[in-house]
Request: fold
Amino acid sequence: MKTPHFRWLVLYTRPRYDKKVQGQLDEAGIVNYFPMREELHEWSDRMKVVEIPLFPSYIFVYVDERKRIAALQMDGSLKFVHFGGEIAEVSQRTIDNLRLAMIRPEAVRIEETTLRLGQRVRVKHGPMDGMKGNLFEFRGHTRVAIRIEVVNQIVSVEVPIGDLVTITPDKEEDIHI
Reply:
């Protein structure tokens, strides 16, 4: 008899169904992780602290094949996240690090950027001002590493995303992001 192979996957849900799906997963005994953070919301008549998902519509689930299929059958479940045609797996270390980070959720921020790996960029502020290169790696959510061409080697520096502008490859002109 074959031992079930459990792995962490990322379940994508319909918008605003994530909490409902997470409750269904709990009821079905499917191990999941759905990080939440508190945020202060202000209305005209009051202020209230509300819990919101760190990653809206995404739930980490620890499943074997049987439980993976069961998770997909939950009301509001859409699909599992894929990369390169394969279901994306998340390491236990990543889950553990995320749990550690959520001990102080006020220190965790999700920032969206239009930058993409391989894109030509120029540093517009700080000690690396004016240096050009390719976006080489994202490190966390607020910093990137770029490949600097000045030396004929791969040298990466960490630069805040806000200190970068994209460059059009043909004209080397800046596109502000």
Observations:
- The chain has two domains: 7-107, 120-175.
